[in-house]
UniProtKB/TrEMBL annotation:
Residues 31-127 form the Rhodanese domain. GO terms for molecular function: thiosulfate-cyanide sulfurtransferase activity. InterPro entries: Rhodanese-like_dom, Rhodanese-like_dom_sf. Transmembrane segments: none annotated. PROSITE patterns: RHODANESE_3. This is Rhodanese domain-containing protein.
Amino acid sequence: MTLKMSSADMVAAARARIREIETPDLIGMLNDPDVVVVDLRDIRERQRSGYIPGSFHAPRGMIEFWVDPDSPYFKEVFGEDKTFVFHCASGWRSAITTATLQDMGFDAAHLREGFSTWEKHGGPVEFAEKKD
C-alpha cells in the first residue's frame, strides 16, 4: 500500500505552521501561572518516564473533544485564558495535535523535542506514587 502522505510528512507540515517551544524556554515558563503544560502521552509512558510537574494529562485520543466547549467531554481547564503547551515523547504527536487544534480555532503551542530531552536540559520530573 502506498500512502498519500507519510506520518513524517504530516509532522513536517504541522511544524511548518505551528508555534514550537524549545525545552529550555518551557523550563523557564514552568512557574508562570498563565501557562498550562499538557501531556499527551499514554498513562503508561507517564508512569514509566515521569512527567513535568504540574502538567495536565490529556490522552491524545480525547484532546479534540476535551477542548471543544460544545462536546460532552469538554474539560474546564481548556476554557481558561491561558497559554497551552502540548507535549508528547518526541514532538511528533504534539505537533499534529497542535495543528489540529489550531484548525479548530484553539490557540496552542507544542514542545518541539518532546519529553525525550527534558531531563537532559535540566527539566524537573515527577513520578506518581506507587499504589500498594
